[in-house]
Each structure stands twice: as C-alpha cells, then as structure tokens.
Specification:
Layout lengths: L3 H4 L24 H4 L3 H4 L1 H19 L18 H12 L3 H14 L2 H14 L1 H5 L18 H38 L4 E6 L2 E7 H20 L4 E2 L9 H6 L5 H11 L3 E2 L10 H30 L2 E3 L18 H24 L9 H6 L2 H20 L1 E3 L1 H9 L6 H13 L8 H9 L6 H9 L5 H8 L10 H8 L2
Parallel strand pairs: 3-4
Antiparallel strand pairs: 1-2, 5-6
Keywords: Lyase, Purine biosynthesis
GO molecular function: N6-(1,2-dicarboxyethyl)AMP AMP-lyase (fumarate-forming) activity
GO biological process, one term: IMP biosynthetic process
Length: about 500
Amino acid sequence: MPDSSAASTPERVSLASAEPAIALGPLDGRYRSTIAPLVDYLSEAALNRERIHVEVEWLIALTGAITGGEPVVPGAPTLTEDEIAYLRAIPATFGASEIAELAEIERETVHDVKAVEYFIKRRLAAAPEHLGEGTSLPGAAELVHFACTSEDINNLSYALMVRGAVTGAWLPAANALADQLAAMAHEHAAVPLLALTHGQPATPTTLGKELGVLAHRLRRQLRRIDAAEYLGKLNGATGTFGAHTAAVPGANWPAVSRAFVEHLGLTWNPLTTQIESHDWQAELYSDIARFNRVLHNLATDVWTYISLGVFKQIPVPGATGSSTMPHKVNPIRFENAEANLEISSALLDTLASTLVTSRLQRDLTDSTTQRNIGPAFGHSLLAIDNVAKGLSRLAVDTDVTAGILDRNWEVLGEAIQSAMRAAGIAGTPGMENPYERLKELTRGHRIGAEDLRAFVATLGLPADVEARIAALTPGTYVGLAESLVKTYLD
C-alpha cells in the first residue's frame, strides 16, 4: 500500500535559499554577537583586507617612501603624501561594496590573490579622478605584486590577522577572565574548604587558594601568548629572491625584505620555501589550546563545587533551568564552555600539527587549514565569555563548606602524625609509628572532634604541642592557604 502520510506531507521551504542567508554553524548563527569582534580579524573579508594592505605597503616600499631613500626599483615614482594617503585608504575603506566587487573579480580570475592585484590596479587607474591628472599612481600599476608569489602576501596577511585577533579580541577577554578569577580568589582566600584528592576527603584548603591555583595557571599561559612571535617572509616563489634579483640585481633584497616585514610589525624569517613555515602559528595555537585546557579544568571544578553546594547559582530573572523541573538552576555556562573549549582545542591541535608540514617547497593543505583559524578562536572566545558570565552568577555557601568540614575530622590525622614526628625528632619519647597509629584510628571510618581530642590526650605530646593540636579543627587546618593567595597570586 502507498504511504498516504508521506504523500500528504507538504513540500518544505528551502532554508538554503532564504534571505538573509541562514548560518550553517553556531558561531555565525546562535552565538554571532559574542564572537563578532573576531570578524574584523579572521573572516574571509578580513583576509582580503589584509592582502590589500600588504600589497599597498609593498608598493609604497618599492618607491622608497617608507625608508625615505631611493626607489628599490629604478624608475619607480616618488610618491606624494596625498598619493600615499590615497593608497592607504584602499584597505581602510574596504567595506561591503568593495567585498562584492572583489568577489566579482575573483569569479573571473579563479584566484583570490590575483583578484586582489586587479582590485588595486583599478584604484590606481582611478587615482586621477581623486588626485588630479598629474598623479603618478596609474604608472605605478606594475609595482603591485612586484616579484611576489601569492604566499608572500598570504603569510604576511595571516600573521597580521592572527596578531590582531589575539591582541585585539581574544587576549583582552582572556586577561579579563583571569583577573575576574583572581579577584574571586582574593575575596575567598580565607574561606575554608575540604579538599578532595581522588574524590576522597583530604587536607583542608581554602576556596580562594584553589581558585588562585587556576588563575595562576591561566596567567602563566597568557604571558606566553602575550610574548608570541609573529613571523613573516617576502622572498619569492621558492624563497630564493629569484625574480627579485633577475629584475633588479643591484638591490639588497634580503635587507629590503627584512625592512618591509619589520615595517609591518612582524619578525622576519630569512629561510623559507615558497611558504613561511608556520612554526610560529603551531607554537601559538599550542599555547592557546593549553590555556583552553586549563580553563576546561576550571569549568569542571566549578561545576563540581556547584553540585556539592559549595557554590550557589544566582538565578537569572525569567530564565528556565529545566523544562519540567522548575527548581533547577543548571550550570549551563560551564557546560557550554566545556564543549566549546574541546572543539577549539581540537581545531587548534589540528592547525598546529598540519601547518608545520608542507611537501617539498609547497603544497596547498595550509590554504584550507588556515581558513579554520577563525572557528578555532571563535569557540575559545565563546567559552571565555560563558565562564566569565557563569562566575559572575556564583555565591559561596559557607554553611555548606563548614558542614562538610565538620563531618570530616579524620583529615586532622595528617597534622597529628606530623606533630608526633617532629616531637620524636626533638627527643620526646613514645612517638614511634605515628603514621600507623593514626591510620588505625582514622582509615576507612569517620571520627568526631571528641574522639580525636581524646586520642591526642593519650599520646604524651609536649604540653604546648598538645594544646596546639587539640585546638585544631578541619576549618582551621588550612596551613598558609590564605597568605599564599595574597602573597603570590599577583
């Protein structure tokens, strides 16, 4: 029999043809507002804007205008200030109509960097309309992309893009999160907390000290990321300056290349194949992935503290925690962060491992791979935002932390046996086998305050030591936790 239900199903509207276009992925859809700052640095449009910027600066450099010296290419025009300003306005004004124009050129060239070259040459041809008929820019058209291979432009563009994304978007958000966490560590530096090693009760600490450990770890990675090198090269099709020396043999091309790369604010790489080797990218992405994993550790620890009741979540007015259980306030910020950190780290790991390899002098795997730098940063930035918002909605329940400590007096066994060891070394008799004696008293079962104090009274400790140990509670046995935060975190 025919399936009458299938036959009666109306044809669906095509979402693929909807206007405005519907995003395929969550970063450009659901989470667009959070990761939008990265679009200025890591989108396809940002790549083309940086390509235009690099090509324009290279043209200016070849005329000698950057160094104030003679033209690198004999016969190149001497540019006026107005002409330099006109050239630099090309990338500065690169917007929606220019993006569409460049895409139209690329449909003809079927080559993205060649399309950029033609785009700039159009602007040079139009310069007389803006600067007057006496401008030399139309005659400078063949300085565009002079002696360059596409990768001379691409590697510099990506270095500028990634540096911009790190310093302009990702690093400020990551630093703000680390500072937020450090402030929480200071605020709660004296709040006693039962530690859990292997999930079992252990020597007490303070909540602030545990948050301080994570803040300290995050900041260490951030210092590495802040000190990252961004390398660039401009040396031709196989890294030999072959076209350069064939065209202008009298120029000191390595010096010109170095001065240009450093003019862009990058570190010059003198020895490459057709591509810049991308090792700096692998180093940076490994550091960011490590930051992600420390942050993942924070998210899972905070989630656990929430489940134990150490942290209370402050409800967002009007928000729903569960579709069926109205009492719930789910730790969704930290769970969302976990997932996004895992995706980001997986992408960063792939970038780091793939980009360092290129067959012989060039293959094209890096081209597609580098187009995923944006999503790698996007998922990390989204996670940072979620953790920051999650932390801002937490309150410490000191009644819960005190209650947990009061149910675990056995953790003082470490303090007692250590005091016995010290007393024995100092000559007090009867201090033999302290670990074994405390193990027999405490292992595998709970004891209370009176049990422990009665045991201490039988040990024969010196009076001052006995008084000090008898006065300890799980809530006061926190060592130097508070001062460690105040002394070393910042």
